[in-house]
Amino acid sequence: MSLNTISLSKMYPANHKTVFVLDHTPYFGISCENPIEFEFLKSRGPGCLPIPPFSKSLWTASFESAIEYCRIVWDLFPQGKLVRFIASDNLAHLINTWSPSQQHLGHITSMMSLIGVPPPVHASNTKMDYTVLHGMKAAIDALSEITDMQQEKMNSEGQTKLMNRCRVICITSARDDESMKRLEEIFLNGLVQQNKANAKSDRFLVIDHCHLVIINTFPVNVESQVSNHPPKNLSLILTTEVHSVKASMVPNKLSSLILQHYDLASTTVTGIPMKEEQNASSSANYDVEIYHTSTAHTAILKGNASDSAAIQTQKENHEYQTVTLKWCTPRGTTGSELHNCTSMYRITPVDVNSRPSLCLINFLLNGRSVMLEMPRKSGGKITSHLLAAHGGEIFIHTLCTARSVLEDPPSISEGCGGRVTDYRITDFGLLMKQNTLLPLKSNYLEKNVTPVAEMKSRLNRLTRYWPLTISSTLIFNLKMYIDPLPSIITKETITEEEVYQCKQIIRNLINLENKHEPLHPLNSGQRVKGQKRDEQYRTMWNELDMLIKNNLHTENHKSVHMCLLECHSFKDEKVELDDALRELDQIGPKKSEIDTQRASVIRATTDSPMSPPPLASIAVSLTSRSTGIYATPRSLLDIMNSQDKSKARPEFFGRSGDSLVAKLYPNLKTENDRGPRTEGMEVE
Amino acid sequence: MPTIILLDVSLSMTKPIETTENFETSPKQLAVLGINAFLDHVSANTKLEFISLMAFSSLYEEKSPFTRDYNAIKATLQNIDDYDKTCLETALHGVNQMVLGEWGNNTACQVVLVTDGSVGIGPMSLKESLTNLIHRSPNNPFPVPFSFPAKLHVVCLAHPNDMCLQRSKPLYQKLIDLSGYDGSISVPEQLNEVGVTSLFHKLAEDIYTSFKGTLKCGNLKSRIMLYPAPVHYTKVTDFDCQTYMVSETIDILGFISVNDIGSPMAVSRHLVLHGVQNIKDPMSMETEIDLTIDEDTNDESKTPSFCVLLHGALKVENMAALVSLGDNWFGFIYSWADTKKKSNLMLTLLVPGSDSVPWLGDLNYLGCTEQFEQCSSFPIRPSEKRSYSQNGVVWIRSAGLQSDIQKILRHARKLPEKTQQFYKELNRLRKAAISLGFLELLLALATIFEQECLSLPGNVHPDCAVQLHHAAEVLKKTQNQDAKFVITPYVANYNNL
């Protein structure tokens, strides 16, 4: 049960729906009696007459505090935290609805300018029924209305019952505790009545719980008879609290309330170097206070008690604490690495228009980021947070300051495949660039396959035949002969023109072969000196066949394959004995399905106890799919390299050659040439 | 996954037990024996797990910090005194503090509570703590759910049909439920040395299971292990609460430059290690590799691996791979270096959901230019600007109002060149004043303008005085106090003056 209580209050927070009920009765038209003074006017000469003192009205003071509350909410939570405004005089003025289109400051201020200042206190007005109760009644109606998010939740089946929890913040002025108590009771009564009606209706929701916050305000030169009371449960469905504050203190009161209502915390960034307004050559240090979700502090506040006590201070004239963290001048760009962020929240400056705030904001919006440091009692300091803007929004990132369980991890080069030095890193980098993700314009939203799912099948297609290392492929080292065939053949669909292009590439290769021109692999370090030209061609044809066979996506793809089969004759069964022996030597036990007897002959002659090392999983899966005897993803070079270890072989190689002159120790050179250090892995 | 062993050292742990062999022992003695067996199992199988020991009664004490030196813990176990009564709540607060201080709030840990099945009596007993859960104030929170992802394992050294244990079991279960992760309650089959030893062996086996899966990029794949093993994640948002698990197949969906990713919030981070056939902990390879150059390891390190290729390319291009971890759950794989020399493949788990990184947009709707025609670019900007980039009006502190007025006056002195700016700022201020019902400001501003006219130095353009006077007159007229009204410059023909 307790688990449910915790997650229910988390799942159905009161701050989803907030209604501000603002007193717009004639009383709120009176002055706060808190004259505004301008420093710049004082410095004028004695000849100037002082301007008559002026002050905000109670209405201005309460309304501007309320919209500041909204500004903070909507900066930090662009969606899902709804606020409505109701002004109450002789009737309730509904300023906005729950619709997201009306949940922004522009709408509220322009609607408020239509309502204007509270009506004047005239004799003729006394008969009118001016009271905040109209607004309270309208607020209860508003809370019963279903928001888009609630509707969406109600539509999705199989969910637990939706809880309609909400909050009303009423800024008004009451005579004494007695009348305040009456206001609370009337509200509760209205709530109960409304729930009775709601229970019968489909269009309205029963209010499961309402948090009523009443702020009683009055001009600064008046003493109020209304006393504060902390939250108390008036009933199961209503919790009320009363705060009685002077008009000048309403903004501060709302600041401390907003921190509770949305679970926010304050951070003061200290030591921001900023050029003086008057004197650009000197700079002074400033502080900027920001608000954000309180969990951004969890890691630093819950850890070391003495450290956290040292960074928390009471905010002047406010009822909350702020955590002071030091600005750390950024070195270079910080975006180039992925920081270990344990949390990330939007921020908003508390004093949005002050010069220091603007300075920090612009610094961040221009793409720079700032690290925040926390001093440690034990001496030294630690970088605990990162402030950065992403797409015009500023976030605070909590960096991991704790010890890592990944202490002393092994390097990737120590693990499986770590000693292989000829991975096709450049080629894979190219594949990555061709599959770099970007946001799509909205016209893909209606597709029934999500674009990322399409990307997955795309990657599948592009990697049908993709050797991992340079030494396990020949064709990908012959780019100048076969490009752009690999990139065309892996396409989902290919045009007639592209088919022609591919066929042309195949024909060119045939021509080269007929002219007895040797192929020059791109990575000259990989070139096998001892390799015969015709062997080179055979390996190339086999691999090319493998590539195309694995990419028979359409008829056009098939026609490329047909062309290959027509142009080059794969002499399957009609191999000469000598050739077969040689191939067996190269291919090793893979050939066993053809003739086990021959294989055993080879084995006996070479006296090699070693089978080639097991193929990588990818290669195995490819071989199993192929049928032809040449259809192995292992190139000649690959096989030869694997045979390097076998010291007993050179003499056999000489005997198997088709000419009488055989080069001695042909592998010796290879061994030296091997290891393309320039292309090597950068892992250490 | 770091482990805290939370050992009950209350007096009840010393009560004599007669084992089946007529041998007298106590829960405490059995506990020490069991923990030793647990440590032996760990040191034989997963050498590099961090383990700590905390003793508790009505208070708690950190007996051994997190360490890989299990012999140190064993030594400590020999010198544990007996104290008063069991008070679990205080100890669990201690656990929170110890873990947060050491590992922060997003490292998953195991809490192994070793007790005799009695939950204490009186106001600070577990029963009492759990009954008043709902009446907790924010200043006095209950320590569970823990401030970090935690699996709670309760080991009760009591007879399976002990009355006290029967009463405590539901309370322990409630505690585990509260923690939000799967835990366990274990009771030895026989309350003797053999029973306890095998219980602790089994516990060690159960809690140190590694995650094995496959990393795929189309047809290229590698068997992988994740270290530490990821735990499930429960995401609670307004109106929703869902639990997500990491699936065995991790699919690469595409690639994004590290610069574009920013540094999003991570649920956890895991090393992507090559899945090895033997069940030994991969971390222990590090110590073995240089010592034993055996034939098998050698061959394995020379067999090409997709992981190594991926790592190399990600590092060279400074990119990360976007991967799908399960249903609507995403992560990034990238090259990460602990020190300058040792580089590795790292997996960051994002918060579940396709909207977890606002500036990347919906992660389900990403694609590459070759496949999709209409691509925009990162970062995604929200449809509405935030207040700090809107130049809004906030006059709560008079400094804000003062700087807005001074700006208008600065423009006034530079008339007629700044006529446009002067009226633009004036109308902005006027509009804000009207919507705030701050009409007093309009009259005050009119007075300020009139005074400004009087104190203008002689060398300014005559237009200054004319426009200031004109603006003051318009401000004073109440019929102009309409938000839609716009003050326009006074058009004067100086030739006719």
TrEMBL record, chain A:
InterPro entries: Cell_cycle_regulator_Mat89Bb. GO terms for cellular component: integrator complex; perinuclear region of cytoplasm. Keywords: Cell cycle, Cell division, Coiled coil, Cytoplasm, Developmental protein, Differentiation, Meiosis, Mitosis, Nucleus, Spermatogenesis. One of its GO terms (biological process) is regulation of mitotic cell cycle. It is found in: Cytoplasm, Perinuclear region; Nucleus. Belongs to the multiprotein complex Integrator, at least composed of IntS1, IntS2, IntS3, IntS4, omd/IntS5, IntS6, defl/IntS7, IntS8, IntS9, IntS10, IntS11, IntS12, asun/IntS13, IntS14 and IntS15. The core complex associates with protein phosphatase 2A subunits mts/PP2A and Pp2A-29B, to form the Integrator-PP2A (INTAC) complex. Belongs to the Integrator subunit 13 family. PANTHER family: INTEGRATOR COMPLEX SUBUNIT 13, SARCOMA ANTIGEN NY-SAR-95-RELATED. This is Protein asunder.
UniProtKB/TrEMBL annotation, chain B:
Residues 208-353 form the Integrator complex subunit 14 beta-barrel domain. Residues 393-495 form the Integrator complex subunit 14 C-terminal domain. GO terms for biological process: snRNA 3'-end processing. InterPro entries: INTS14, IntS14_b-barrel, IntS14_C, VWF_A, vWFA_dom_sf. SUPFAM superfamilies: vWA-like (SSF53300). Residues 3-117 form the VWFA domain. GO terms for cellular component: integrator complex. Keywords: Nucleus. It comes from the Eukaryota. Transmembrane segments: none annotated. It is found in: Nucleus. Belongs to the Integrator subunit 14 family. This is Integrator complex subunit 14. It comes from Henosepilachna vigintioctopunctata.
